[in-house]
Design goal:
7-stranded parallel β-sheet, 42% helix, 15% strand, Rossmann fold, alpha/beta, 248 residues, globular
Length: 248
């Protein structure tokens, strides 16, 4: 049974990895799907063609999540194309690592990480709630590193992921009267282009995971679909960990 027929969803960073898996899962549930991308235009167009084959409306838009004006333009473009917006999935993000006392750190990279991982989420939520009707859903893909770092060099990344949890809880309070739910899904180590299970870092990433393996993008998408579905209508301001037991 398709649970999201008639809904319009936007997935930021939807051209690959968790974003692409989420776009596919939303389409399987009957939602029309918009996605954003920055550099992966060819991959985004391929996903659009794939989703059109599932019988839903879909489109890809180029937008840099580090630029609030582009994020606002993205939301406007989605509404102009599809007529409304019901589900916002804040998935776009980057990971920049480095010991805080390393003099070779490129500070501009850390600033861009903050602008995308936190600033882009805030900008998207602020723009979306201007057009989202009562009963909408906002889901942000976070990281368990925002709660338990577990390794060196991740302080700045962890800070961006912890910040969206606090913002989500506040937004859930603000938007509760409109029956708009706002939640975070904190992902564990997931096998994507950014963090492949074949990398040298993989043994470290899975050492503290109870299930002893990387997760699949589809396993994150399943959690997002749940939070977007009618079954999650009484869940807001919460954090769902999909991490294989990393935080256990």
């Amino acid at each position: 049974m398709e649970t999201l027929t008639g809904k319009v969803a936007l997935v930021t960073g939807g051209s690959r990895g968790i974003g692409a898996a989420t776009a596919r899962a939303l389409a399987e549930e009957g939602a029309d799907v918009a996605m954003s991308y920055v550099n992966s235009g060819a991959k985004a167009r391929a996903i659009v063609c794939e989703l059109e084959g599932k019988g839903v409306r879909t489109a890809a838009f180029r937008a840099d999540q580090a630029d609030p004006s582009q994020v606002e333009g993205l939301i406007r473009a989605v509404v102009e194309r599809f007529g409304h917006l019901d589900i916002l999935v804040n998935n776009a993000g980057i990971a920049v690592s480095g010991l805080i006392d390393n003099p070779e750190n490129i500070i501009d990279d850390f600033k861009r990480q903050h602008a995308i991982n936190f600033g882009g989420v805030v900008a998207a939520i602020r723009a979306a709630v201007k057009v989202m009707e009562n009963g909408g859903r906002i889901i942000t893909v976070g990281s368990v590193i925002g709660t338990r770092v577990g390794t060196v060099g991740m302080a700045d990344y962890a800070a961006t992921k912890a910040a969206i949890v606090g913002y989500t809880k506040g937004a859930a309070r603000d938007l509760g009267p409109r029956n708009i739910t706002v939640n975070v899904l904190q992902a564990g180590a997931i096998d994507t282009d950014m963090n492949p299970a074949t990398s040298d870092f993989a043994p470290t990433a899975t050492a503290g995971v109870a299930l002893g393996r990387y997760g699949r993008p589809e396993e994150i998408a399943a959690g997002i679909i749940f939070l977007a579905s009618p079954a999650a209508s009484y869940i807001t301001g919460t954090v769902l960990n999909v991490d294989g037991g990393y935080g256990a």
